[in-house]
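Sample entry (56 residues):
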Amino acid sequence: MRTVLLIKEIYKEGFRNLGHYLLKRYFKIFAWFSFVMFTIVLYAFIYRVVTGFPFD
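Predicted structure, serialized as tokens:
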């Protein structure tokens, strides 16, 4: 029984910060993706304004 409790404690310790790491990495990737998408949209809008696209 002591071995099972020891294995359980090792498992919990090994994966304790894993969720925080994945969540932090996900938000960092999402932030960069959002920034790139916003830049593309801004470029397309400025290109349409400069070329005289009629916004009806």
